[in-house]
Amino acid sequence: MSYCRFMEADVYVFMDTGGFLNCCACNITDDEDQWGSFHAFSTVEMIDHLNTHRMLGQHVPESVFKEIEKDDQKNFMVKVDDWSQADLDGWEVDGRSISY
After folding, report:
1. 61-78 confidence digits (pLDDT tens)
2. How many domains is the chain partitioned into structurally?
């Protein structure tokens, strides 16, 4: 699902099937990103990124922020029942280790 496209904003943001929010064809990625996209692995990371676009004078509708925040759990919540203990041990979420 896309949160906005170039026709309505200066950014194109969608939830990628790879499990991250994608700012596609982003014009503020670093030199190491050969694809020109910014990948956010949390809602907070994408909101910070979109705020950078705004600070640079680029148009990002307020609705994009609201929709991304609304979909946070759907986009990034891992259901513990879907994973075994071995799958979760050693993972980190927001800087905190997961262990059983």
Report:
1. 999 999 999 999 999 986
2. 1
